[in-house]
Hints:
Structural class: mainly alpha
Distance between the termini: 60 Å
Largest sheet: 3 strands, antiparallel
Number of strands: 3
Mean pLDDT: 93
Shape: globular
Amino acid sequence: VALGTFAQKNELKTAEKAIKNSQFTAALSAITPLESTVGSMDAKYKAKYYFLKAQALSGKQDFEAAADTFNQLFAYENEIGKQKYSKVAKPMLDGVVQKVSNKAIALYNDDKNYEEAAKSFYLTYKLSPKDTVFLYNAALSASQAKNYEASLKYFKEAKEVGYTGVSTQYLAVDKETGKEENLGTKANRDTMVKLGKYINPSQKTTESKQA
Length: 211
């Protein structure tokens, strides 16, 4: 047991050093031998294992596997009642979601590569299931790519999860340009109005896309 613990500690230290040097393949190579021992791993090493593995996968741009591993970390630390790594890891996962989302938007708007945009929008949704708009965007992108089979699959899934597309827009007029803008959240809109940069605050509810 002592020998096994010593080996785990060394492998994790090697992986951690590799990640600091952006050597993500080397980090994964150090971590892979530990996969068979995760079930019996000491709690402090197990949480660190998930944390390092998720970072290495993210560095390799294997975002789906990275998100799965981040979620394994969150579940495990919730189970043991300690949030040592989760506090740092949650912003990292948000960063992964943002990267995939930005890639999807660029593929759609700039490259007009609707097929790949659909895949990236769907992956964004899988990484962050609460953001169902990405599932709808995947369906639209697949339709633009004339991949109707995929588009139908995504539309059906959007219907099953109850996506409506109804949202509240918090609007105000930019004093410099005179144009009305959606400022994202009520708090942000109200702050910008208080600062005097925007005037005429209002809000409206978008129409349902369910049909």
